[in-house]
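Why should sequence recovery work at all? Because a backbone constrains its sequence more than one might expect. Tight turns favour small or flexible residues, buried strands favour hydrophobic ones, and helices have their own preferences. The token representation captures these environments compactly. In the example below, the structure is given first.
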């Protein structure tokens, strides 16, 4: 879930499957998890719930970190 606020008009929009627009000249638009505007410096993300680690236990994340740090061995073979 994503919640954004337009600094120009003060309108706060919450993400959904429908297109939502604030209506001011900045034209902040939110569709699902995508935010666009004429000037993104006038847009503030107030809440962002990430789903990246959803479904993974702490043991799974620890195993992934250990696997990421492993080194790749290079094998040399003799050519006959």
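From this structural description, the recovered sequence reads:
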């Amino acid at each position: 879930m994503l919640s954004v606020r337009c600094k120009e008009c003060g309108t706060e929009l919450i993400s959904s499957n429908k297109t939502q627009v604030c209506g001011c000249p900045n034209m902040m638009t939110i569709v699902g998890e995508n935010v666009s505007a004429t000037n993104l410096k006038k847009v503030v993300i107030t809440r962002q719930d990430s789903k990246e680690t959803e479904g993974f236990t702490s043991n799974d994340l620890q195993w992934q970190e250990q696997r990421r740090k492993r080194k790749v061995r290079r094998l040399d073979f003799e050519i006959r």
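A few observations help interpret the result. Residues 2-50 form one domain.
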